[in-house]
Amino acid sequence: MSGVRNVGVAMDFSTTSKYALQWALDNLADKGDHVVIIHVHSHQAETGQTQLWEKSGSPLVPLSELRQPNLSKQYDISPDPETLDMLDTATRQKELNVVAKIYWGDAREKLCEAVEDLQLDSLVMGSRGLGSLKRVFLGSVSNYVVTNVTCPVTVVKEPGFKP
């Protein structure tokens, strides 16, 4: 496939989302692609600055800024070293352009908005592996997103995971 693509990865820094990120970096992202880490806070924005971004999401945050200590205060996000190492390695090996965008609100709606706002060519997300009963009561973010976005979505489960 030629041309630069915009690949989104839904990321909550859980084991499942880290596995989905690694899958996307290993199997989907090609040299020169743009990879957007999308994080959605389920609570409302609390500070004045983040309240300004509550509807549209934060500005794009470059990978170099994800390591900054004030990032946690500014965006209420704390990427773990394992995730940052995965991204650093992929940027060096595949010459990827990695940025993050943070949203506040319902994950289902915000991930669908992100696909449109960021003009994503594909989206990768982890599966929590809810059983059928829990899925009925809690709803499935991945089911909602797969049904409502305009780009291909890959839902990645951890190997050996049984709901």
Automatic annotation (TrEMBL):
**Gene3D superfamilies, alphabetically?**
HUPs (3.40.50.620)
Q: Which organism is it from?
A: Taxus chinensis
Name the record gives this protein: UspA domain-containing protein
Q: What are the TM regions of this chain, as residue ranges?
A: none
InterPro entries linked to this entry = Rossmann-like_a/b/a_fold (IPR014729), Universal_stress_UspA (IPR006015), UspA (IPR006016)
Q: Where is the UspA domain?
A: 5-157
| SUPFAM superfamilies tied to this protein | Adenine nucleotide alpha hydrolases-like (SSF52402)
Cite the CDD domains for this sequence: USP_At3g01520-like
